[in-house]
Amino acid sequence: MLMNIFFDIDDTLFPSSEFSALARKNALNAMIAIGLDCEYQKLNDLLLSLIKEKGSNYPNHFNDLCKILNANEPAKFVAAAVAAYHHTKSSIAPYPQIPKTLLRLKDDGHHIYVATNGDSVKQWDKLIRLGLALYFDNVFISEEVGVEKSPEFYSKILKSLNVEPSQCVMIGDREDADIVPAKKVGMKTIRILKGKHSHTPSTADFTIEELGNLYQIMQHL
Prior knowledge:
Layout: E1 4-7, H1 16-33, H2 40-54, H3 61-68, H4 74-89, H5 98-107, E2 111-116, H6 120-130, E3 138-141, H7 142-145, H8 151-161, E4 168-172, H9 175-184, E5 188-192, E6 206-208, H10 214-220
Parallel strand pairs: 1-2, 1-4, 2-3, 4-5, 5-6
């Protein structure tokens, strides 16, 4: 019986892509509102280029944006952007069916975990803001595991829990990070078709559009 269920966070537990886009929009509009002389579309294009170049976890996107624009009083614009960005983050919420689904799985005797890439503080911040941190038996984040999602990542987690891959299922939105490497170590996989990766072809054992359908799939698994 599959007793151990692992969840990704972004676009699996909550609509990360949507909230990130809204947070960026609000941050850029805050910079313009406080006096930055630049059109929104140009700012957005520059910011997206920086994110692509530096990665989403890079901490100085807005600082670099001000440098590119040779902005006077850059601290003012960075502060406005950061405040707006974090204000938007405070409104994040899980997909509506998530809390009920997690509770039902726990009531049935499953152990539930988070398995995610990213910065540990940022990923914990999301779980706490979402009100989901206490639902999980343990949280595994790539920064702490020591390697990003890969067969090695999942192998390390399974070894630390002393469980067999055949007793585990990984649930996530990304084929490359959540599905393929988990399958390589022998775990079952469920792909949720949410967010910016939703149209990527999948090799998962099951695909779902809503996590509310997870309980029925677990009966099959």
